[in-house]
Amino acid sequence: MTFSIAGKTAIVTGAANGVGLAIGRHFVSEGANVVFADMDEERLEAELGSSDVEPDRYRSFACDLRQKLSINNLLSMTIDSFERVDILVNASRQIVSSDPLDPKGDQVETLLNQNLMTSLRLTQAISKRMMKQAEGEEDGPVGSIINLSSIAARRANPDLLGYSISTAALDQMTRSMAVALAPHRIRVNAVAFGSVMSSSLKFQLKDNEEYRADIIDHTPLGRIAGPGEVSDAVQYLASDASSFVTGQIITVDGGRTLIDPVVAPAH
To answer: Which of 23, 54, 261, 265 has its CA 20 to 30 A from that of 216?
Structure first.
């Protein structure tokens, strides 16, 4: 079986840059209809306007998905444009350094809201639509939801307290929602990745070869992944090739978590 997603409709959040943008573009190239959603309207339009993405196969939607109305509007626009939704990729995430000993600077509440609650609310809303689409159908796949997580969920890095907690919670949400939605034939999985050359990491590595070398030294495959390398794993989970896979956290980290000590940087 191939990893085909041709003809399916996907919503990808965090799609104005980095991994989310790479996934959205990849999905379009594989024959899917894609709604690119992000808070950064200017960058979203600039990235899609300067690419070769087929204009009739995508829509862009600028919004703050922490707001319930924005989620409803995103879903309505998707249905108006493509009549259905088959795939949700929760790729919107925020990484902020924190002070674990400062209640005002630990960033836990901020990152739980951004990295966990937004994905949960979207999953709840989109899955209801998927169920409605499947009314009257007794078998076959109904939908696939993929959350983007991080190896930080398994590591103890005090400087990333809020981010680590929020991604660990996202992993547990993935498992719980997988069980809750399994009777409705909707699968929920996650991809947890290590150092990927996103826009944020690229900025951190600028003029800092020592930092780059440190990441590479702690990655058995000896390099930093490109955003597109996450896309294939996400496509597998979105396709019917993974029809019996749910509640799983697939790790894409070049072997990092096999040897990684606590002191090494993580993204």
So the answer is: 23
DSSP 74-101: HHHHHHHHHS---EEEE---------TT
Strand order in the sheet with 9-13: 58-62, 33-38, 9-13, 87-90, 143-150, 186-193, 249-252
Structure tokens belonging to residue 175: 């498992």
Residues 219/254, Cβ–Cβ less than 8 Å = yes
| Secondary-structure breakdown of the chain: helix, strand, coil percentages, each rounded to the nearest 5 | 50, 15, 35
d(CA 243, CA 237): 8
Q: What's the pTM value of the predicted model, to 2 decimals?
A: 0.93
Determine whether 163 is an active site residue: yes
Bridge partners (DSSP) of residue 61 are: 37
Residue of 58, 163, 211, 236 marked active site: 163
Q: What DSSP assignment string belongs to 153-190?
A: GGS--GGGHHHHHHHHHHHHHHHHHHHHHGGGTEEEEE
pLDDT digits (tens, 9 = 90+) for 28-71: 999 999 999 999 999 999 998 876 777 789 999 999 999 999 99
